[in-house]
Design goal:
Elements: H1 2-6, H2 12-33, H3 37-60, H4 70-90, H5 99-117, H6 127-155
Helix pairs in contact: 2-3, 2-4, 3-4, 4-5, 5-6
């Protein structure tokens, strides 16, 4: 992204690819964690339908990939939130595997999705407001990483190998 910035090119294409990749990777992750055939079907079908919807949008209007693409942001992030909530539901009666990671992911994605949705009007905002929004998003990333760190500590640190 830095190279794109230095070349004065839009790096939003990479951001859109990141959202799609994040949905695919986390969809595969949560799909692998569930034992329910119907939930696996929901997760994998959602990923496929989202990919088709984004592909059709790109085919009809390829310029959307070079902007804050609201369809990509909303579809991918809300899908991951649904996958994470399914995992939380499954943990009600089973082992709490990746519990803190999932809680952190949901909190981060809910808040950051709202921040990214205002991306297209970001140009019209006051610089102070932009700074506050992106500082808040940076804070959310740090909180999310702290949830990951805590989950790692609880799950793996100090456990003896068998």
């Amino acid at each position: 992204m830095e190279v794109f910035y230095l070349l004065h090119k839009s790096n939003l294409f990479l951001m859109n690819m990141y959202f799609i990749g994040q949905m695919m990777m986390l969809g595969l992750f949560y799909g692998s964690l569930t034992n329910s055939r119907s939930q696996k079907t929901i997760i994998y079908t959602t990923m496929a339908l989202n990919a088709v919807a984004i592909g059709v949008q790109s085919w009809l209007d390829y310029e959307q990939f070079f902007k804050y693409n609201l369809l990509v942001i909303v579809l991918t992030n809300l899908s991951v939130i649904v996958f994470a909530v399914l995992h939380l539901y499954n943990m009600l009666t089973s082992e709490k595997k990746y519990y803190y990671f999932t809680i952190g992911l949901i909190l981060y994605l809910l808040a950051s999705t709202l921040i990214f949705i205002v991306g297209n009007i970001n140009i019209k905002l006051n610089n102070n407001v932009k700074f506050i929004l992106w500082s808040f998003n940076s804070f959310l990333v740090i909180v999310y990483y702290l949830f990951i760190l805590y989950d790692w500590k609880v799950s793996f640190l100090g456990k003896k190998k068998r």
